[in-house]
Amino acid sequence: MSTGPTPTPPRPQGRAEAAELTALRLVATARRAFAVQGFAQVSLDALAAEAGVTRGALHHHFQNQAGLFEAVFRAVDAEIGTELDVVYEAQSDPWAGMKACYHAYLDLALRPDRARILFRDAPAVMGARAMDILMNSGFATIVEDLADLIAHGRLRPLDPVATAHLLNGAVMAQALWLAGCEGGTDAQRSAAHTALEAVFDGLTLPPYATQTALDVFLDSLSEQP
Amino acid sequence: MSTGPTPTPPRPQGRAEAAELTALRLVATARRAFAVQGFAQVSLDALAAEAGVTRGALHHHFQNQAGLFEAVFRAVDAEIGTELDVVYEAQSDPWAGMKACYHAYLDLALRPDRARILFRDAPAVMGARAMDILMNSGFATIVEDLADLIAHGRLRPLDPVATAHLLNGAVMAQALWLAGCEGGTDAQRSAAHTALEAVFDGLTLPPYATQTALDVFLDSLSEQP
DNA sequence: CTAACTCACATACGGACCGTATGTCAACTG
DNA sequence: CAGTTGACATACGGTCCGTATGTGAGTTAG
């Protein structure tokens, strides 16, 4: 067999692989353009030229500008998902892992190259589907983990599905709000994290639910205007 | 003087009044169009025709489509402001009045003919200025009232400006989130109100800060999925 | 091995739409 | 009453998008 055909051919690149590459190149180029210029300011002509193809190729892979945007949107969402997997694995405790993921989501999703796409343009371009997609990313996993935590007595006996909606809604609200303020000030971002921590405290069993995080946050308001 | 010229002439309508009328007509027509079709789907040709003028008149009053949108945006924001004044006056207690205003803001701003303009299209069209304008609507008044409440011992000794930012940010985050979900379900809306009430509880002095509202909300999650 | 077929992509076309530049006529002013 | 201002209409140029059609390389069947 010597240097026989590898299971993943590296060079030959049949027609299908080449097509997928151009689609990926278009998505990558579009992502950069959408992030810095915004959806409405991006010209498909310029975009295709920058990607080294014509608009014909673009319309072959994506129905229209909104379709291309949705592909970019899903790519960014998926990318955050894989990064969150790393965050989760780094924590030994499942409850700590879940909390770390929500905190990390705020930072990861609000990165300048992502915030505009996810939270500023997506609602206008995709409507309610935008938030639906973001909310349901890894939703099933969250529900499972919550059910486990509740079953093991780590959390109050809440409905896992409703609680997952609550947590996702809370973090999404903070993200939308901060994205609308150009990422927000450092104080605003830390306030969002503290508010999130307060929600987590509320989910734990009574001995842990002291609402200390919210108190600390409110007290800090007295000092730094 | 008999029937001399009234201070607000009802009929004659000089050139200035007529011009203002057409501008108002354009804003009113645009508001309806933006609310139902969304910014990007509105044609200025059709808009001007529906208002009974040409696009030349439109561009005489507004620089471009974004300028017209911003006029509509500010009109909606101002309209909510006057409605909130009524809500505030209906409450005898200043703290109750402030709380009622924030709760009312959620309902008033999320009305179907307003939510899309304020929270879905505005961030894409106007950028960060959108949230800036909404945040600063009546901001000075809120700060004054908070300072009074704190001085009279109704609230914890917090910085009024920072607290006003906190409250406005909280209600704006809830509104943005619900607007992204097509107004949200009834359960989501009541959850937003409950979360808001929890923040209010946290601002009151220790004897009142029992976080009961959040507890009630969390307990309710166990029953209705 | 070759001929037919498929498909990724390019080219060409028609049309909607926007912003500006220019024209016009009524209302105001000295 | 003549000059000026300003509100609005008309006309034009240009950008951009979506589709329809053409083409040539890659794939497959016989």
UniProtKB/TrEMBL annotation, chains A, B:
Protein name, entry field: TetR family transcriptional regulator
Gene3D superfamilies linked: Tetracycline Repressor, domain 2
PROSITE patterns found in the cross-reference section: HTH_TETR_1, HTH_TETR_2
Upper lineage: Bacteria, Pseudomonadati, Pseudomonadota, Alphaproteobacteria, Rhodobacterales
DNA-binding region: 43-62
Organism of this sequence: Paragemmobacter ruber
Record-annotated HTH tetR-type domain positions: 20-80
InterPro entries found in the cross-reference section: DNA-bd_HTH_TetR-type_CS, Homeodomain-like_sf, HTH-type_TetR-like_transc_reg, HTH_TetR, Rv0078-like_C, Tet_transcr_reg_TetR-rel_C_sf
Pfam family, one: TetR_N
Keywords: DNA-binding
